[in-house]
Design brief:
alpha+beta, GMP Synthetase, Chain A, domain 3, 5 helices
Length: 88
C-alpha cells in the first residue's frame, strides 16, 4: 500500500499519515473530512464539513485509528480531535 511505502522514509511521514487516514476512511468519508496533523497527545486533528459528519467521525474514532495504525505499522493515532470547519 502507498501508506506503507511512504512510512519507510522519514521525510514522507506526513504523506504516509494523510494517505493512511484517507485509506482508513474510504472514499465517501474521505471527501467530507480533512486530516490536518497529529496533536501533541497523539490525537489526529480532523476537520469536517458539518456537525453530522463530526458525529459520524466520533462514532468511528476507534476503528479509524486502528486502521490508520495498522496501515502505518505502528501506533501513531491515539484518537481524534474532530472540529467543524468554518464555512467559507
Amino acid at each position: 500500500m502507498l501508506a506503507e511505502t511512504f512510512s519507510q522514509w522519514p521525510a514522507a511521514q506526513g504523506a504516509a499519515l494523510t494517505t493512511a487516514f484517507a485509506d482508513a476512511c474510504g472514499p465517501r468519508l474521505a471527501r467530507e473530512v480533512s486530516m490536518r496533523g497529529v496533536l501533541r497527545d497523539g490525537r489526529l486533528l480532523v476537520l469536517v464539513r458539518s456537525e453530522e459528519w463530526a458525529a459520524q467521525l466520533v462514532a468511528l474514532e476507534s476503528p479509524l485509528c486502528e486502521r490508520v495504525n495498522a496501515r502505518l505499522g505502528r501506533v501513531v493515532a491515539s484518537g481524534l480531535e474532530v472540529r467543524v470547519a468554518p464555512e467559507r
